[in-house]
Amino acid sequence: MVSKQTQEKYAELALRTGVNLQKNQALMINAPIEGADFTRIVARKAYELGAKNVHINWVDDELTLLKYENAPDEVIANVPDWKVQMQESFAKDGAAVLNIRATNPDLLKDISPERVAKANKAAAEAMKGFRKYTMNDIIAWSIISIPTGDWAQKIFPDKSREDAVESLWNAIVKIVRVDQDDPIAAWEAHNQTLITAREVLNKKKYKKLVFKAPGTELDMELPEGHIWKGGSAQTEDGTTFNPNMPTEEVFSLPYKYGVNGTVASTKPLNYGGSLIDNFSLTFKDGKVVDFKAEQGEDVLKHLLDSDEGARRLGEVALVPDESPVSQSGLIFYNTLFDENASCHIALGKAYPTNLEGGAQMDEEELDKHGVNDSLSHVDFMIGSENLDIDGVKEDDTTEAVFRSGTWALDVK
Ligand code: ZN
Ligand code: ZN
Q: What is the C-alpha separation between 219 and 199, in angstroms, rounded?
């Protein structure tokens, strides 16, 4: 275990830099029950910082699995109203939301993909209203992780449970800069680096990005008025927060009708407790028209068929290979980490805030601008030291954006 002092530093970073908790604000935390000790540290700190209420929703992998194994379909595919109302009531009150994410990547490997797809779809539909608060940055929210035994042993299969948890703690602490003397100052400097990179890209106004790597030849148009974001975000009332810790990406949105070619994954994707690995997708006019996967092809098929927008892209993110997550050399089987080791794209819903005026547009208007909509938003990794990206400017000149997995543009 890392020391209590380190955990306290991490808790404080999550509250101040992550959700930027304000006095008299409520805090809703989703946390793994195995992480109760750490979660209590977070709760205590939150009250010290002036929270008016700290509410925890415990996530228990073992009970989740028991439900999948035993409950009838109508229970699996139904999210009770009170659950939705509970989440929405906190959002309406302007609460901050902290997600501590740490599921076992193999939790649902023996459950039929149909059942998992049904549950995922039901949850996504039920949480549509709540998700608007986070995806449009109406409230401050953040996702962090702490180790749990099953997850740690997936990453370090040759270690004992205890040693695996210890190793994962050490990796996380380093990646989120909690090993530094002043993690909050370290994050301010890091956010500034990301702001500089996104400003460079925003000035370029590329109309197209071209991705080339083994198995990948992809042309991706970007909509007019697209905005590159990254690092910290702002709520409507001006509170700065960090939606993901770690975060190493600058990201924008593809034109939903303008993606053509094939893209190959470079890391396994943990999708709701099932792994999809070594897969590729072929796009025509923005839509996936062909796909294959060495592992989890069934799960991928269900994801793609979940709704109309699940076959189109909602995000493109650039992450250089120097990222501390990439430098750790680990595969985390957890998107929060793996997406920050590698350039990635997402199937499904785009962030409306990635388009000028997008947060104020209705669904029809967003569609007209090529902003994708879906119940899902699933990031997957396409970056490696073999990835080259070109940017095509409005005057049709082309320049190198990424070479061999890292910035070719001067973003400093
Ligand atoms: Zn991303
Ligand atoms: Zn994403």
A: 23
pLDDT value at residue 272? 78
If you measure from the C-alpha of residue 150 to the centroid of ligand 1, how many angstroms do you get, rounded to a whole number? 25
The secondary structure of 243-265 as a DSSP string is SBSS---EEE---TT-EEEEEE-
Ligand lying nearest the CA atom of residue 338 = 1
Specify the pLDDT at position 273: 79
Q: Are strands 26-32 and 96-100 parallel, antiparallel or unpaired?
A: parallel
Strand order in the sheet with 53-59: 53-59, 26-32, 96-100, 141-144
Report residue 276 as tokens: 């999809």
Q: How far is the CA of 226 from the centre of ligand 2 (A)?
A: 16
Angle at 345 between CA 340 and CA 346, to 5 degrees: 105
Identify the structural domains of the chain with CATH numbers, from first to last.
4-175 (3.40.1830.10), 191-407 (no CATH)
Average pLDDT of each block of 10 consecutive residues along the chain (412 residues)?
Answer: 93 98 98 97 98 97 96 95 96 97 91 90 93 92 97 96 97 96 97 96 97 98 97 93 96 98 95 90 98 96 94 98 92 92 96 94 95 94 96 97 96 86
User: CB-based burial of residue 27 (10 Å sphere; 0-12 exposed, 13-18 middle, 19+ buried)?
Assistant: buried
**Ligand 1: distance of its center to the CA of 297 in Å?**
23
DSSP per-residue string spanning 121-153: HHHHHHTHHHHHHHHTTSS-EEEE----HHHHH
Query: Is residue 374 within 8 Å of residue 348, measured between CB atoms?
Result: yes
Question: Closest ligand to 252 CA?
Answer: 1
Facing residues of 392 across strands?
208, 398
Q: How many angstroms separate the alpha carbon of residue 350 from the centre of ligand 2?
A: 8
Residue 140, both tokens? 């401050």
Nearest ligand for residue 248 CA:
1
398-403 and 388-392 as β-strands: parallel, antiparallel, unpaired?
antiparallel
Strands 313-318 and 344-348: antiparallel
Give 377 Cα–ligand 2 centroid separation in angstroms: 6
